[in-house]
Amino acid sequence: MNIFNILFSVLIFSFILFHSNAFNVTHDSRFIIIDGNHRIILSGSIHYSRSTAQVIIYMWPDLIRKAKEGGLDVVETYVFWNAHEPARRQYDFSENHDIIRFLKTIQDQGLYAILRIRPYTCAEWNYG
């Protein structure tokens, strides 16, 4: 199974997990349209993999709550694949790499998420 098949599987799993909260998202020349409502979204970045595994239970909800209080609608994050696959075909979605838990924490705050999925992330991340 190659990296793209795994990413697709994660996305499908995420969709199934959140299917009760699925949205119809489109756009026109000026706005994002979510369920028929024109929106200007305000996004901020929180990188789930950069948290300390021992305190993610407290760190993620606090950061996301502060983002919401600061006026954000959306939390965007890279998907750090080199953290999820540190060696060929050895996968890690535990602790601070638990992207599903991170997305559920965003959803629990009533915010949207944007995943920046790509094979390379700069973001001051070694070998990203």
From TrEMBL:
What does the sequence similarity comment in the record state about its family? Belongs to the glycosyl hydrolase 35 family.
- Range of residues in the leader sequence: 1-22
Domain Glycoside hydrolase 35 catalytic, residue spans: 32-128
State its Enzyme Commission number(s): 3.2.1.23
Q: Which UniProt keywords apply?
A: Signal
Enzyme category, top tier: hydrolase
Q: Does the keyword Nucleotide-binding apply?
A: no
InterPro entries referenced in this protein's UniProt entry, alphabetically: GH, Gly_Hdrlase_35_cat, Glycoside_Hdrlase_35
GO terms under biological process: carbohydrate metabolic process
Molecular function in Gene Ontology? beta-galactosidase activity
Listed under catalytic activity are: Hydrolysis of terminal non-reducing beta-D-galactose residues in beta-D-galactosides
| Protein name per Swiss-Prot or TrEMBL | beta-galactosidase
